[in-house]
Design goal:
alpha/beta, Rossmann fold, five-stranded parallel sheet
Length: about 160
């Protein structure tokens, strides 16, 4: 089993990483960190961008591995929602975790646009995280997790409820 977590390295994405790590630790499953960039860097800048992104993902993965997690990372060029859906389905992930709002400004983009597109693009359950604290406390067994799940009687919503 695998949990996939998308990150753009923003503060909100760090909440998503914390939650994905807490669930991966609790379920003892592989965590795959994914960074996807939808605007391909200029020729010559691809290597620099890829190396920088790989370095940042590896720094995060190293910290998580030190806490006992099995972690892999992937840097991809493509629309983030499509790439996360593709990776989640290819790995038969049990969950894809993303932050509520990434690097794009709230004024310029509707909050939740990537999560909404991702949820439409995949049958893998998608968890959108605003704040990590309640999820981490639940994963540690300190409090029950209360979640609102939209149900449309599809396989995806059945999986989300489960």
């Amino acid at each position: 089993m695998t949990i996939v977590c998308g990150t753009d390295f923003s503060e909100n994405a760090q909440h998503a990483v914390r939650v994905a790590a807490a669930f991966a630790r609790a379920k003892k499953v592989l965590l795959v960190l994914v960074h996807a960039r939808d605007d391909e860097p200029a020729i010559g800048a691809v290597d620099a961008w890829s190396k920088a992104a790989e370095g940042r993902l590896e720094d995060t993965a190293r910290v998580l591995r030190a806490s006992g997690l099995e972690v892999e990372s992937q840097v991809l060029v493509g629309t983030p929602d499509e790439e996360l859906a593709r990776v989640g389905e290819a790995l038969r992930a049990v969950l894809i975790v993303v932050g509520f709002l990434g690097r794009r400004s709230a004024e310029r983009w509707r909050a939740g646009s990537l999560p909404a597109r991702l949820a439409r693009a995949t049958a893998v359950p998608v968890l959108v995280v605003r704040d990590a604290e309640a999820f981490e406390a639940s994963a540690r067994g300190e409090r029950p997790l209360r979640a609102l799940v939209a149900v449309d009687f599809s396989v995806a919503s059945d999986a989300a409820v489960a």
